[in-house]
Amino acid sequence: MGKIKVAVIGVGNCASSLVQGVEYYRNARAGSRVPGVMHVELGGYHIRDIEFSAAFDIDRNKVGRDLGKAIFTPPNNTTLFSPVPRLGVKVERGMTHDGLGKYLARVIQKAPGPTADIVAILKATRTDVVVNYLPVGSEMATKWYVEQVLEAGCAFVNCIPVFIASEAYWRDRFKRRGLPLLGDDIKSQVGATILHRTLVNLFLDRGMPIDRTYQLNTGGNTDFLNMLERERLQSKKISKTNAVASQIRARAIPIDAANIHIGPSDYVPWQKDNKVCFLRIESRHFGNVPASLECRLSVEDSPNSAGVVIDAVRCAKLALDHGLTGALAGPSAYFMKSPPVQHTDDEARTLTERFIRKYRKKRPS
Questions:
Q1: Cβ contacts of 142 within 8 Å, gap of 6 or more
Q2: Which residues on neighbouring strands pair with residue 37, listed in sequence order?
Q3: Global pTM?
Q4: Does the CA dihedral 185-191-195-198 come out positive or negative?
C-alpha cells in the first residue's frame, strides 16, 4: 500500500511520542479500537506505513545520534512506553534562529558546526511530509524551515502556534507550489483545548451563556520551561484563546476579551511531561441564577498529541497522492487549534471523515 516518509523538525518529547507510537502500534489490526488512536488505518495507510526519513535539532546531545536513541536523550522526559530500534536516521544540525529561548538555553547546548542542507536532505530521502515540532515562539525559525519545505516539495504539518496555514500568504505559497499544508497548533486527543471547547458548546447548546471562563495549565517539560519567557507566549495565547472563543462567537454571542483567559501558567519541574489543566466556566441557568463549573484534567502531554499527528500525517499523504494543494480545511479544523476556518469539533470530524473516504488510497487490483 506504500509508505509515508516523514521528517521531524525538533527531536523533543512530541517527536519521541510520535516515533514510539509508530513502533507501539505497528502490529495493530486495521479496524480495531486501540487506546489513543482514532484510525489504525486511515485512507488505506496503516500506522506502520509511517517511516522516518530525516530529523533536525540543535541540541549537541542529539545531533549526530540515531533518531531512535535521540528521542530518549535528556532533557526529553516523556513517558517511555515502547522500545525503538535503531532507525538509520541521523539527527542533522538544524537552524537555530529564534528556536532557543533564554530558559531553554540553560538546559540545551547548541551543537557545533553549520546548519545542514535541509533541502538536499529532504530531497535525497524523498521525504513526503515534514512535521514541525519547534518550541513555542519560534517564529523566524518556523518560517525559515517552511521555505526549505517549499523548495524541497514536501507536505507540511505545523504542530506549533506560528501562523502558517491560517495565513493567506503561506496558504497561497503552498498552493502555487502544488503542495498540501495542515495547521496550526496541534490539538491533543483529549486535552485542555478540546475539553474546554466541548464544555463551552455543552453550555451553549443547553441555553446557558458563557459569562467568564479561564483555562490555566502547568507542566514540567521543556515546552513549559520555554514558555516562562512570556514574550514567546503571544502566539500560543492567541491560538488557545481563539480555539475556545470561536465556539462562542460562532453563535453570535459576544464575550468581552477580559472575561476569557487561557494560557500556560507555570513550570513545575517534577511534573515532567504531565500537564495539569484547571478550567472554570461561569454561567447562568433558569431565572438568571448563577452556575459555575470547575474541573481538573491531568494528561501526559506529548503522547496526548501524537495520535492526532499520526492522523494528520496520513491526511497530508492522501492530499499528496491526489494532488491537493494549499491548506486542508477539514483536517486542519479537526486536528488543529488555529485552522484557516474554525468549526465545531463534530463538524470538523464529519469533514475529515468525508475527506478520508473521498481520497482513500485504492488497493491494487
A1: 132, 134, 158, 160, 162, 164
A2: none
A3: 0.94
A4: positive
Contact between residue 269 and residue 220 where contact means Cβ atoms under 8 Å apart: yes
The closest alpha carbon to 129, from 232, 242, 6, belongs to 6
Cis peptide, bond prior to residue 211, ω within 30 of zero? no
Q: Write out the three cell numbers for 6.
A: 516523514
Quote the cell numbers at residue 167: 495565513
| Closest C-alpha among 341, 333, 326 to residue 312 | 333
Write out pLDDT tens, residues 38-80: 999 999 999 999 999 999 999 999 999 999 999 999 999 999 9
**CA dihedral angle for residue 170, residue 171, residue 174, residue 180, rounded to 10 degrees:** 130
Residue 36 grid cell: 489513543
Please give the grid coordinates belonging to residue 99. 528556536
Distance CA 56, CA 115 (A): 9
Residues 6 or more apart whose CB falls under 8 angstroms from that of 166 comprise 183, 184, 327, 338, 339, 340
* Amino acid present at 252: A
Radius of gyration of the chain (CA): 20
Q: Where are the strands (E) in the chain, listed by range?
A: 4-9, 41-42, 45-46, 50-57, 91-93, 129-132, 155-158, 180-182, 212-219, 260-267, 274-285, 289-300, 326-327
**Rounded to whole angstroms, how far apart are CA atoms 46 and 25?**
9
Q: What cell was used for 348?
A: 470538523
Q: Where are the alpha helices (DSSP H) in 91-233?
A: 118-124, 139-152, 168-177, 192-205, 222-226
Q: Which residues pair with 158 in a beta bridge?
A: 132
Whose CA is closest to 183, among 199, 165, 195, 204? 165
pLDDT at 365: 44
